[in-house]
Specification:
Layout (H helix, E strand, L loop, with lengths): L12 H12 L5 H8 L3 H14 L10 H5 L3 E9 L4 H9 L4 E6 L6 E7 L2 H12 L4 E8 L11
Antiparallel strand pairs: 1-3, 1-4, 2-3
Helix pairs in contact: 2-3
């Protein structure tokens, strides 16, 4: 039947709890994960390998202090784009050092731009630069006051 196969398998409760534990601490020892989840080390190891093989876990990453402190002023800028200029504008945005990521979206806004700068004046300057890009019709920016990630303990 269509949609079946290894990628169509649903995560059971144990897989979801294991992934949540790995998000909290991607460096946790298999023995610690096993103790937290009430499973054997062999079961945890096998489940991690299976989740990686299926593509449910695509890798592990490290969030360093410099990732957070190099650009402590963060914001989300929503943009409305004129006509069919989205790809051109996305490429221009990705060339700006303060741009962390650009997301296409539906609804009122066409793009959401993640920004990170060292200071408020620097953020103000990048907002002006982006608003001046030909084809940007409207924008709204929200400062991120704090961030909580399941994979990072800061």
């Amino acid at each position: 039947m269509w949609g079946e196969g290894p990628r169509a398998e649903r995560l059971d409760d144990t897989d979801q709890r294991l992934i949540a534990a790995l998000r909290r601490d991607g460096r946790a020892a298999v023995s610690d994960l096993a103790a937290q989840l009430g499973l054997s080390r062999a079961t945890v190891r096998a489940r991690i390998e299976r989740l990686m093989t299926r593509g449910e876990i695509s890798g592990f990453t490290v969030l360093t202090r410099s990732d957070v402190t190099a650009a402590p002023v963060r914001g989300l800028m929503m943009l409305t784009i004129e006509g069919r200029g989205t790809e051109r504008i996305v490429q221009r945005l990705l060339g700006l050092p303060a741009v962390q990521a650009v997301h296409t979206t539906n609804g009122q806004w066409d793009l959401i731009v993640e920004l990170g700068t060292r200071s408020l004046p620097e953020l103000d300057e990048i907002l002006l630069q982006i608003r001046r890009i030909e084809g940007v019709l409207r924008s709204e920016t929200n400062l991120q006051l704090s961030s909580r990630r399941p994979s990072a303990r800061l």
